[in-house]
Amino acid sequence: MSASPLATPSRRIAWSVVASAALAVSGLAAAAPAGAAAATHAGPSWTRSCATPTRAGVMACNALRVTSVKEHVSADGVSKDATPSGFGPSDLRSAYNLPANGGAGQTVAIVDAYDDPNAASDLATYRSQYGLPACTTSNGCFEKVSQTGSTTSLPSADSGWAGEISLDLDMVSAVAPNAHIILVEAKSATTANLGTAVNEAVKLGAKFVSNSYGGSESSSDSSYDTKYYDHPGVAVTASSGDDGYGVEYPAASKYVTAVGGTSLAKASNSRGWSESVWSTSSTEGAGSGCSKDDAKPTWQKDTGCSKRTVADVSAVADPATGVAVYQTYGASGWSVYGGTSVASPIIAAVYADAGTPSSGSTPASFPYAHTSSLNDVTSGKTASCSPAYLCTAETGYDGPTGLGTPNGLTAFTG
C-alpha cells in the first residue's frame, strides 16, 4: 500500500484550479505513522493517516493527509479573516446539489478504530468555523462510544485513526449539518472489532453508518457479510480504497454502498463543477474491480464481473482537490484530507439528507433505480484492465466512480 504519485501534467492542472479557488493546503506537525508512505511530487504532498496492515484481518483507514502548504488561519483554529484550505461545506453542497440544512431527525454513525480524545472539541471548532449548528454531547447531538456502547471505557488513542475520525465527523457535519452523530470506536482495527462496532451503531439507532476503512478480501467475507454488514433498512457505506485498481473489504460486501473517488474542481459549466476519476499513479487512486468472494447483488447488471463489482457511487477523494478538516490529536489544527475516506461519510450523509430508508429495504440498491439523478463521471482511469470499464470512466456505470456522484437526493431514496 505504498504511495508513489506521479507529477503528471493533469495533476498539476487540477491543483492549480483548486489553488485559484483559495484551496492551498496545509502542512501539519505530526509525523507519518509507521508504515505510511508520503506522496511527493510537483503539486501538493500527502501521507497516509493510518499504518499499513501487516497481517490479514486487519484494516487500514483510507485517509490521506496533505502535508505541503501552510494554512492561513489563526492559531486558535477559528478565523474571521481567512478560510481554511480545502473544500468546505458550501463547496460540497454546491458540487452535489444538496440542501443547506439536511439531516434533521436523522442519526449518522461513524465507525473507526481506536480513540480520538479530541473528537468532540475538534468537531466543535469545525462547525463553528463554518457557522453550522452546535453538535455536542451536552445538547444531545454528538455521542462517542466504544464498540460495546460504553461512554467511559474507550479504546486506546491513536493519532493516525484520530485523523480519520476528524475527517469523518467533519464530512457528515458538512453534508448533513442537522443530523445527530454517533462515533463508535472499535478497540482495534480488526475486521471483527470494526464489524462489532457497526452492529453497535445500528443497535444505538443509526440508520446511516459510514466505514472509511478496508483490507484484503478473504474466504471469510461471506460470513462477515451476514454477521456485521447485513442491516435491512440501514444505509451502510464503505470506502472503495486508495490503491487504484483492486478490491477491498468491506466495500466488496453486497450489503454496503461501495464508494469510489473523484477529482473535483470548480468549472465554468452549467453545473459549476467538473469531476474525473481520482488517480495519482498506478498504485494510488480510487479502488475498483471484481470481488473474488462476494456474490453479485441482483441490482448490479454489469457483465464484466460474475461476482460483486466495486464501486456503486462516488464523491471527491483526490487529496489535490481535498477537503478542510480540523484535527488536533496528532496534528496541529486545520489541514486538508483526501482518499476515499472523504467519499464514504459524504455519501452516508447524503443518504441521511434523503430520509429514513424504509424498513427491510436495501439502500445499496437505491442509486441503481435512479441513474439519471447522478452526475455521470466519464473521464479518467486508474489503470489498464479488461474489460476497460472496471478501471476507466465511461458513460454510465464504471468501476472507479460507479454510477456517478450525487446530484441532489433522488438517487439515495428508496
TrEMBL record:
Keyword list, A-Z: Hydrolase, Protease, Serine protease, Signal
Keyword Mitochondrion: no
Region (Disordered): 275-303
Domain Peptidase S53: 86-414
Record organism: Streptantibioticus parmotrematis
Leader peptide range in chain numbering: 1-31
InterPro entries: Peptidase_S8/S53_dom_sf (IPR036852), Peptidase_S8_Ser-AS (IPR023828), Sedolisin_dom (IPR030400), TAT_signal (IPR006311), Tripeptidyl-peptidase_I (IPR050819)
Low complexity compositional bias, start-end: 275-285
UniProt-recorded name of the protein: S53 family peptidase
